[in-house]
Structures are given as structure tokens and as C-alpha cells.
Amino acid sequence: MEPWLQPLYDAEGIRAIDRWAIEEQGVPSSELMEAAGTALAEAVAALAPDRPIRVLCGKGNNGGDGKIAARHLAGMGFEVETTEIFSEEPPADFGAWLAGSGAVVDAIFGTGFSGAPREPAAAAIAAINGCGAPVVACDIASGVDASSGEIVGAAVEADVTVSFHAAKVGQRIAPGKWHTGELRVVAIGIPPGAPGEPVAGTIDPAVLALAPRRGARSTKFSSGQVTIAGGSRGLTGAVRMSSGAAIRAGAGYATAAVPADLEPSFELGQPEVMSAGCPGGDGRLVPASA
């Protein structure tokens, strides 16, 4: 993957990395969970809640991370209450249990979840979203598919998501990204050199370093040429804005390839952009325009 891309993993990729770290590199799973829970607790503590912190835990590692975070928060002096929502006696009314919370930790479902949350998880998620307190999600907001960003049914609307080791695809693709809030990726002790490639990436600001710099002898012919084809009668905005953006971004010159009968409007409206009138029909481009 290009160095200017921030890697995104799907659920299977993250599972493979965890297995590799534990089974081949000898990293105890308890150490990974301790690091994850510690990072989660630090994110919650940064909110400095002055009222009780409520932690909702599911099964497996995600719930375990939540319990570790609760332990650390209690050690920091915060008032903390924890519930295992799949236990034999979960709160009868999650809304009432969450009332007055200073912050809420969502540790119900992890990256392996897909589909629609069933009860009592659905009720717990609805109560979290309605409680009015800041919500910090453990690794991924419960109800979001880590591999696709899809949501079927209810999903936690997190204010902050603490993602372990790497960001997940579902945290950057709608609708999942709208439930992620501020995304914080934290290291939890996975050794360098983990196998497998990310399935996608998001563009990092470091990509700007690749843009060529103009020298004293640079001309428009050495600074890149851009052609934007499109436009139709009444719908010229996209071509106009794209052409202007190309010039502002540093292109030597930009050409708007538009239907011939619309070319005069480009010459009058954007003198910095060259225009090329293409054969068209009824004010729009047609196959013959190519």
C-alpha cells in the first residue's frame, strides 16, 4: 500500500492479525486486552465526567476490554458501574440504569459482529443513544459492520471510537462512519510485520508532499495538463468548478471539453480555462463527441 494511505482492515484481516500476534509471535491475549482496555479508559477519562461512568459489556474480547477499562477508571477515582447485558439478570430498564451518566462506554459488540442486534442488545443500544451522555465505543460502535459500514437495525451513535491497532473499513464508509464519531486509532502491542494487506486506505495529508513544486523556470507546459469533459445545457456547474479547481490546485492549464453550443459561455465566464467545443446534440455530449 502507498505510504500516503492510512490502512483500513476488514473484520477477517483484523482477526488474522490477532491470531498471528498470539499464536506465532507469542503475545499473550491478556496483554493485548490489557492494552486495549487501558487505551479505552484513557479516552473516557479525557472527557473528565463528574457523574457516574456506565460500562455496557457484551460477550468475548469486546466485553473483556470494557471490564478492563472499568477497572482502570475506578483506579483513577471515577465512579464506575458495569453491566453484562447478556447475563441472566441484565437491567430491566436500560434507560433508567443509564440516567444521570457522565459518560457511557459501549463494549457490547466488536469487529466480528454483523447483522441486526437482537434483544437485549437492541434495547441497550437504543438506551445508549437516548441517554444524552458522551459515548465512547470500544473498537467499533456496536451494530456497525466493521467490513462494510452497513447497519441493519440499531447501532450506537458514538462520540468517540477507540479503534485498536488499525482503523476498520466500516468506520470510514457510511452509514458506519456517521456512528463512529471521532476516530482514535491506538497501538495495543501487535508486533511489526503482521501478515496480510489492508483492503482499502484513506488518503493521508502526506500525499501533498508528492505534488511537484514549481521552479523559477517552470511553465504551464511543465506543470501538468488537465482535461475535464462533461456539461449539458443548464448543467455546466460541475465542469466549471472542476476546471477552476484544477487551476487553483496548480495545473499548468485546464481544458473544458464541452458541447460546442455551450463553449461560448465558458470562454466568457472562465477566461483562465481553455475550452474545446465537441460535437454534441441538444446541448449535451454524445458518443460522437469522443
Classification by helices and strands: alpha/beta
Main β sheet profile = 6 strands, parallel
Quickly count the helices: 7
**Uncertain residue segments:** none
Order of helices and strands: EHHEHEHEHEEEEEEHEHE
Strand content: 15-25%
* Main sheet strand line-up: 3-2-4-5-6-8
What form results from the Cα inertia axes? Answer: elongated
The CATH homologous superfamily of the largest domain is named: YjeF N-terminal domain
Could you tell me how far the N terminus lies from the C terminus, measured between alpha carbons in angstroms? 34 Å
> Which topology of the largest domain does CATH recognise?
Rossmann fold
User: C-alpha Rg, in Å?
Assistant: 26 Å
Written overview of the protein:
By secondary structure, this protein is an alpha/beta fold. The protein has two domains: 5-206, YjeF N-terminal domain (Rossmann fold, 3-Layer(aba) Sandwich); 212-283, no CATH class. It contains seven helices and twelve strands. It has helices spanning 11-24, 29-45, 60-75, 94-98, 121-130, 237-248, 263-269, and strands at 5-9, 53-57, 80-84, 103-107, 135-138, 160-164, 167-168, 182-186, 200-203, 225-229, 253-259, 274-278. Strand 2, helix 3 and strand 3 (80-84) form a beta-alpha-beta unit. The longest helix is centred in the N-terminal third of the chain and has 17 residues, at 29-45.
Features:
alpha/beta; Rossmann fold; 6-stranded parallel β-sheet; 3-stranded mixed β-sheet; 7 helices; 28% helix; 20% strand
